[in-house]
Amino acid sequence: MVQHVCLSVIGRLQPPPYSPQYIPGRCVCPKTVKYTSENITDFQIIEPGPSCSSMQVIVTLWTADNSTNMLCLDPARRLAMAFINCWKKINREESKKVTCLNKRKNKSQ
User: Fold this and answer.
1) d(Cα 64, Cα 37) in Å, to the nearest integer?
2) DSSP letter (8 states) at residue 74
3) In angstroms, rounded to a whole number, what is the distance separating the alpha carbons of residues 57 and 46?
4) pTM of this prediction?
5) Of 37, 30, 7, 16, which is closest to residue 104 (Cα–Cα)?
6) Where do the DSSP E strands lie in the chain?
7) Gap between the Cα atoms of 79 and 82, Å rounded
8) Residues 55 and 48: beta-carbon distance below 8 Å
9) Which tens digits make up the pLDDT trace of 43-75?
10) Alpha-carbon distance 12 to 30, whole Å?
11) Of the four, 7, 10, 16, 80, which is 20 to 30 A from 53 by CA?
């Protein structure tokens, strides 16, 4: 009887299979590009964390056929650095991301 109780308590100490787990080297952006000249409509900055040690810059591109594609930019290149610096200036506020996108559009005109 005592053995059964101990096993059931030990079994409950393990996390459920759906809980977040640390997986080394698992980045959202395994490959990046240096630059894109396509129309960027949105961006996302993913800070370094336990699952990926590098900063990741993901941009959403609008294409001529009215579809969108997501692309990972190299965070060490000029275009990605511009988004990272602007992101820091707006204090990482999602509602102010349009400011960063407008700066990019004004520079390209």
Assistant:
1) 13
2) P
3) 6
4) 0.70
5) 37
6) 39-46, 56-62, 68-73
7) 5
8) yes
9) 999 999 887 888 999 999 988 888 888 899 999
10) 35
11) 16
Which residue bears the tokens 């990272």?
84
Exposed, middle or buried, 17 (CB in 10 Å: 0-12/13-18/19+)? exposed
Please give the Cα distance from 11 to 67 (Å, whole number).
48
Establish how many alpha carbons lie within 13 A of residue 73's alpha carbon, considering only the half-sphere containing its beta carbon.
Answer: 25
For 58-69, give the DSSP string: EEEEE-TTS-EE
**CA–CA distance, 40 with 67 (Å, rounded to integer):** 12
- Beta carbons within 8 Å of 78's beta carbon, 6+ residues apart: 35
